[in-house]
Specification:
Elements (H helix, E strand, L loop, with lengths): L3 H10 L30 H32 L2 H26 L11 H11 L2 H13 L5 E8 L4 E8 L4 H5 L2 E7 L6 H4 L3 H8 L5 H12 L1
Antiparallel strand pairs: 1-2, 1-3
Length: 222
């Protein structure tokens, strides 16, 4: 078996040869809490369906699409490779986004960040209250399905808020490093909040894992 480092190196050196031997299938991550742990803000039924059905579907479809992509790569079939790009973006983004989302939530939320993260939020948005209002407004205004994000602009050294449609991954489409994501696909809230997205957005602030967001911020600063 090749090590992960050797596998990555071989991918860089030989992008079209032998890369199949380095492939590792993606898997559904376990949640760091029970399905019912976020109640009453997010119901157990929503969490179970969201994680075990929706996220699992992205993982399964990503693995299937990547298999087809590598087959096309080996055959030198560039037409097939191009045709598979939308599915890779959609399912890969779905897996990336949800893997971040689960860790961004906790039943033991501190209510707001502390320390350096709070300082930069105050610097870049004026106050924590203004930051919440802006991210809530951006998330509420997503047309159809998508995500609201707090990201870090590494070039500018500043926090930024952005919205991404569908399952577009934040970093892959904007360059911002994701710190906090809010899923505004209807499957994230409809069973509990119906079509009233603002009520869901008000509730989700009660279960934000600010320790996780802070860890992500500190890591991307290095």
């Amino acid at each position: 078996m090749l090590s992960r480092a050797a596998c990555n190196a071989s991918r860089k050196l030989l992008p079209a040869v032998g890369s199949l031997g380095c492939r590792q299938k993606y898997s559904l991550p376990d949640l760091p809490y029970d399905y019912g742990a976020l109640e009453p803000y997010i119901s157990a039924q929503i969490m179970q369906l969201h994680h075990s059905k929706h996220h699992a579907a992205y993982v399964n479809n990503l693995n299937a699409t990547e298999e087809k992509y590598h087959e096309a790569l080996e055959k030198g079939d560039i037409t097939a490779q191009i045709a598979l790009q939308p599915a890779l973006k959609f399912n890969g983004g779905g897996h990336i986004n949800h893997s971040i989302f689960w860790t961004n939530l906790t039943p033991k939320s501190s209510g707001e960040p502390k320390g350096e993260l709070l300082e930069v939020i105050n610097r870049d948005f004026g106050s924590f209250t203004k930051f919440k209002e802006k991210l809530t407004a951006v998330s509420a205004s997503v047309q159809g399905s998508g995500w609201g994000w707090l990201g870090f602009n590494k070039e500018q050294g500043r926090l930024q808020i952005a919205a991404c449609p569908n399952q577009d991954p934040l970093q892959g489409t904007t360059g911002l490093i994701p710190l906090l994501g809010i899923d505004v696909w209807e499957h994230a809230y409809y069973l509990q909040y119906k079509n009233v997205r603002p009520d869901y957005l008000k509730a989700i602030w009660n279960v934000i894992n600010w320790e996780n967001v802070t860890e992500r911020y500190m890591a991307c600063k290095k």
